[in-house]
Amino acid sequence: MMARRLLTVLLSVLVMAMGATVFAQSSETVTLEFAQWWAPELPEGEFRALMDDFEAQNPGIEVELLSGPYSATRSQIIAGAATGTLADVVGLDGAWVNDLVQQGALASLSQLMSAADYDDAALAAQIRLGGDTYMIPVVNFVYPLFLNLDLLEQAGIDAGPSTRSEFADAARAVTNPDANVYGWVLPLSMQQPNGVQNDVMSWVWANGGSMLDDGQADLVGNEQVRSAMEFIKGLYDEGVIAPGVFSMREQDKVEEFTNERVGMMISSLAHINLIRDRNPDLRFGISALPAVEGNTGARGLPYASWGIGVSGDSENQAEAWKLVEFLMSQEANSRLSSIANAFPGNVDATPDFVTTDDLFADAFEVFQDGYLANEFVGLPVAETLMRQFGEPLQRYLDGDLSLEAFLADAQAAWEEELE
Amino acid sequence: MSDSVVVSPSPLSPRGMRWRTRLTPYVFLLPALLLFAALSVVPIVTVIYYSTMDNVVITRDAPSFIGLGNYVELLTSSVFLQATMNTVILASVSVVGHFILGLGFAMLLDSPFVGPMAKAVFRVIYILPWVFTASIIAILWRLLLSPNGVVNYALSATGIASGGPIEWLGSTELALPSVVFINIWAGYPFYMVSFLAGLQGIPASLYEAAKIDGANALQLTWHITLPQLRPIIISLAILDFIWTTHQFTLVWMTTAGGPIRASEVLSTFTYKAAFSSNEFALASAAAVVILVMSVIIGVFYVRSQQQASA
Questions:
Q1: C-alpha dihedral (A398, A401, A403, A405), degrees to nearest 10
Q2: Which of A162, A205, A332, B91 has the lowest CB atom count within 10 Å?
Q3: Could you report the predicted ipTM of this complex, rounded to two decimals?
Q4: How many beta-carbon pairs below 8 A join chains A and B?
C-alpha cells in the first residue's frame, strides 16, 4: 500500500516536471552559460548588473554566469574544451587561444561577425589565427612605466625617460645600494614567467621590434632583440637593478616599488589602486616605455586582456555573439572598463576614470599614442615559451652564457614548440 | 501459556547457505573496495595508460599509443635527470636533518634536567613549524630570505656578510640548499614528537644499569637510546623519504624549481609539463616514475613493519 502511494507521488512529480520542461521550451528562452573570472575581480554585483542590462535589451536570452578565480577558470576551460562541455561564452586570456583553437573548442568569430553583419571598425584588437578571429579583447590592462617621482627628483631627474640612455642615466642616478634603493626592478621568477613578457620583451615592442617572423621564432640575428637584451644586461652588470631578480615575482616587484625601494618599474595599470592603498604618500607618475634614441614611431605597449570567445560546440552561437556584441558596444564597454579600471576594447569607448583621475588620464594618453603589443598572445603554450626564454636569459645575465648562445638556446626551444 | 518462538526453515539449501557464508565478508568489504577502486585504482591505472600514449587530455583527437616513448624522452632529458637528482638530494638531506633535529629536541624535552614548565613551553615552541601549512611556511621564508629580509639584515648588521645582500632563493648555488633547509625546518617536529613518545617508553632501568657499568652520555645514546628507537627511526625515515619526494608546494612557492632549474624537483617538473606545456602524457610518465620510486621505498617500509611485528 505504502509502495503504491510512493509510486503515485513519484509519477505525479515526473509528470509535473515534464510539463514544466515543455512549458519552458515553448517560451523559447535561451540560457547562455558564460564562464569567466571577471565577476569576482569586480565590485560585487556590478558584472551581474551589466548582464541584467543585456537580458533587458535581448528578451528571450538569459545569461548564467559561471564565475571563479583566474586559475580555476583556466582549468575549467581546458577541461571543458577536452570534453566538449565548454560554456557558450568564455572569458579568455590571449595565451590560451592557440591551444583552444587547436582543440577545435572555439568558434570563428569572423564567421559570426559576418553572419550578424557586424562592422568591426570599433574593435581595438582581434586575436586571429589562420585569418580568422577567435578572441576579442574586451578590456585591456596596459603595462606602462611607473616612476617614483620623489626618488627621481632627489636624483636630479625632472622628467620621465623617453629613450633607453635616459632610462639608464636615471637608473644610475637613483641607485644607492647603501640606502637599499635601486633604479629599476626586474622580476624573472620562473614560477610566474610573465616577467619575460611584461618586463623584458616589452623593450623590444616599445621600439617597434618583434620577436617573431611570420609567426615563427626570430631571436637569433634579430637586432631589435639583441639590443634590448644587451641593454638589460648592461643595467644588470652595473648593479642598478634591485637584487633578487631570479626569484622575484610580479607581486614582489610591485611591493618593491610601493615601498620606495626602486625608482622605476614596468607594471599594469591595474596596480595603481593597490599602490595608492598600500602607500598613500607615494608620489608616482606614468610614462611610455623608452625606445632607442631617434625612434619617434608609435610605441608598442605590452598588455594583458580580458578576452572573449564563443564555444565551437555551442548550440546558441548567434545568441552568444549578441552577448559579445553587447560587451563590445561603446556604452557597455565604457562601463565595464570604468568598473575594471582598464582600457576599453572599443576604440570609441571612454572610461570614467580618464576624466576624474590625472594618473589614469596620463596613462590613457600613453595608451592612445601607442599601440597594443603582446606577441605572446595567440602563441601556443605561451607560458612555456616565456620559461624557455627566461631560463637562458637568467644564465646570460649570470654570465654563464654569451648573448649568441642565449638567443640560440631560446630560438631552438621556441622552434620546437612552434613548429 | 509460555512464550514460544517459531523458527521457519531457511529457504536456502545447504549449498546456498555455504555460498552466503562465503560471500558475506565480501559484501561487507564492498563499500571500501568500491571507494578504493574509485579513488586509487582508477586514477593510477588512468595515469599509467596516459603515460604510454601521446596527445592525451588536451585534444579531442584519439590519442595514439607510443609505448615507452614518453619514458625514453624522460630518461634522455637532462632536465628530468637533474630534477631526479635534486629530488634525491632534497629527500636524503631532509631525512638526515629531520632525524638530527628531531632526536636532539626530543632528548632535550625528555631530559630530567628540564623542569615541567620549561618542557611545556619548549614543546609548544618546537612544534610550531609543524602547525603551519606549506604555503605559510613558504611565504614566511620568502620574506625572511629575500634580499631585503631579516636574515640578510642580521648578517649585514653583525658584519658576517658584506658586499650586498645574499640571494638565498635567487642564486643557482644557494637555491637548493635553501629549499632543503626550509624543508628540514618544516618537518622536524614530526620526528621530535615521535621520538619523544619512543624515549618515554624506554625503561629507566636500562640507563641505570648502564650507568652502574660506567657508560657515559654518548655510550648511553649509542647503545641504548638509538637501538631502542630503531623501529621508529626506520619507519619515520622511510615515510619521510616518500613524503619529501612528493613535496611540491614548498618548492613551487619558494623557487618554482629555479633559478635555471637549480632547484627543479620531480613534482615541479611534472607540474610544468602538465599545466604549462600541456604535455599531459609526459607528465603522466614522470608521475609513474615517482610512483615506482615510492613503491620501491614502500616495500622496504612494509618489510620493516613486518619484521617489527614478527
A1: -150
A2: A162
A3: 0.74
A4: 81
B66 found inside a domain: no
Instruction: Answer yes or no: do B258 and A82 touch at CB < 8 A.
Output: no
* Residue bearing the bigger pLDDT, A264 or A360: A264
Give the residue-averaged pLDDT of A230-247: 96
Integer angstrom CA distances of residue B146 from A313, A408, B168: 48, 32, 7
Higher pLDDT, B20 or A175: A175
How far, in Å, CA of A291 to CA of A295, rounded?
6
Q: Using alpha carbons, select from A123, A84, A128 the residue that is nearest to residue A105.
A: A84
CA angle B102, B105, B109 (to 5 degrees): 130
Cell numbers of B32, please?
571500501
Closest chain A residue to B252, measured at CA: A191
Q: Which residue segment(s) compose the domain that B208 sits in?
A: 78-309
CATH of the domain at B241: 1.10.3720.10
Sign of the dihedral defined by the CA atoms of residues A140, A142, A148, A152, in that order = negative
Q: A380 preceded by cis ω (within 30°)?
A: no
Residue of B nearest to A390 (CA): B260
- Cβ atoms of A107 and A97 closer than 8 Å: no
Q: Read off the pTM.
A: 0.79
Residue A24 has pLDDT above 70, yes or no: no
Which grid cell sits at A120?
568591426
Closest-CA residue of chain B to A101:
B59
Residues of chain B in contact with residue A381, where contact means CB-CB under 8 angstroms, are 276-278
Please give the Cα distance from A341 to A271 (Å, whole number).
10
B contact residues 59-118, partner A, Cβ 8 Å cutoff: 59-60
Which three cell numbers, joined as nine digits, stand for B51?
A: 603515460
How many percent of chain B have pLDDT more than 70?
95
Residue A104's pLDDT band, with cuts at 50, 70 and 90, is confident
Interface test with A, best of B77, B148, B251 (most A CBs within 10 A): B148
Mean pLDDT of B17-42: 92
For the packed helices B42-51 and B280-309, what is the interaxial angle rounded to 10 degrees?
Answer: 130
DSSP assignment of B142-189 equals HHHHSTTSHHHHHHHHTTSS-SS---TTTSTTTHHHHHHHHHHHHHHH
Tens of pLDDT, residue by residue over B180-200, are 999 999 999 999 999 999 999
Confirm if A134 and A295 have CB atoms less than 8 A apart. no
Fold for A145-301+379-418, please state it.
D-Maltodextrin-Binding Protein; domain 2 (3.40.190)
A31 touches chain B (CB under 8 A): no
**Number of neighbouring beta carbons within 10 Å of residue A158:** 7
